Amino acid sequence: MVIPHHRTESFLSWLKSWPGISYNFPMNQNELKRALSKLPLGDVRYFDSIGSTNSEALAWATDGAKDLSLVVADEQTAGRGRLDRKWFTPKGTALAFSLILHPTLGEKPYLTRVVGLAALAVTDSLRIHGLISQIKWPNDVLLNGRKVAGILVESIWAGEEVDCLVIGIGINVLKGAVPSEELLFFPATSLEESLAPNVAREKVLRDILAGIIALRPHISSDSFINSWEKALAFRGEQVQVEQGNGSKITGELVGLEPDGGLRLRDETGKTIPVRFGDVHLRPGK
Ligand code: BT5
To 10 degrees, the CA torsion angle through 215, 220, 222, 223? Predict the structure, then answer.
């Protein structure tokens, strides 16, 4: 079938609205431009396919990218998680983007909170779409107890100081984005499993970016930490934090430290601050 150019978008929306039809279209660049047009972004680079949007953003930041410049890709072939783990972004199914931040002097003491800024912006944006999600500290967003998004914040240093941060966010929008279970440490899901099938990636992206921009001036406040704490998964539950090399810390998840670290309470009532690791519910609890 030949589709007249001006009708392509409405044809795609119509096709996507059919239940049971599998579709896999690249991101619509006109739609993307329109969705982002009202945001005070720096420059935007879009790729149909890329290794990693974070790698591109780090290189661009080193090369003088403006504050709030954005890299968006339809597919990543070498998407990264923490500790060089893989992040899967199959074509036409997910959101993968990286936002460059040049922190102001006032923001510099609070850079360890930036992962919370990104995670809160994701949970806030999903609420706009009627979805209640939670943050699995430090960098995962869960929907119905399954991972729907991952965040990777990386920094560029100038001597002793962070000069620039890259916030990388990956979201499984359509079912096709969810990797098979043997590739995962933690169960995963997509927005499509909780929303109508016709989820517009461009609008989800816009809402998350708008959320980051709106929350940024509040990053130093106590209310920021309170909102982040309220969004945490497993609050009040017994958890285990795996820190690599088989080392595990266990305790009740009570909240956050002022720097965004996790605060646990052990069986003797002592507070334990945790600065890195993977949180799981404690087996048998
Ligand atoms: C993360 O790491 O969750 C951070 C993911 C950040 C991805 C974004 S996409 C845009 C930007 N460009 C990049 O190259 N990266 C960022 P971590 O907590 O280490 O979790 C990684 C683990 O999540 C993997 O080892 C898998 O088990 C699992 N995983 C990989 N792809 C997934 C997916 N699409 N959905 C759910 N889980 C996934």
Answer: -10
Q: 85: closest CA among 242, 285, 252?
A: 242
- Give the distance (Å) from ligand 1 centre to CA of residue 78: 11
- From 107, 123, 121, select the one nearest 219 (Cα to Cα): 107
Are 121 and 202 spatial neighbours (Cβ–Cβ below 8 Å)?
no
Cα separations in angstroms, 206 against 74, 174, 211, 226, 258: 15, 17, 8, 24, 29
CB distance 146 to ligand 1 below 6 Å: no
- Residue 137 Cβ contacting ligand 1 at under 6 Å: no
Read off the pLDDT of residues 46-94 as tens digits, 9 standing for 90 and up.
999 999 999 999 999 999 999 999 999 999 999 999 998 999 999 999 9
**Could you tell me if the CB of 241 is within 6 A of ligand 1?**
no
| Strand boundaries in 121-247, DSSP class E | 133-136, 140-143, 146-158, 161-172, 238-242
Pocket lining: 87 vs ligand 1, CB cutoff 6 Å? yes
Q: Which residue has the tokens 């595990």?
A: 248
Closest C-alpha residue for ligand 1 atom 21: 81
Q: Which atom of ligand 1 is nearest to the CA of 51?
A: 14
pLDDT level of residue 4 (50, 70, 90 thresholds): very low
Q: Is the pLDDT of residue 240 over 90?
A: yes
Whole-prediction pTM: 0.92
